[in-house]
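As the work plan foresaw, the team has encoded backbone shapes as discrete tokens. One protein thus recorded appears below exactly as we store it.

:::
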Amino acid sequence: MAKILVTMPDAFLNKVDGLATDEQRTRSELIREALRSYMRRVSVHQSQKAGENAKILENLLG
């Protein structure tokens, strides 16, 4: 598994660590899950946008 370096404000990191502790997860597990969730939302949004664009194109082409 690759390691990366991410910078963030101390206050934000404290919140991340607090949440990880509350959920009995590691910081890395929590951040990986947050990124997976973000990537799913982006993928859904892109699919919806593609559908909207296809409808616009259908309407234009009649």
In short: The chain is about 75% helix and 0% strand.
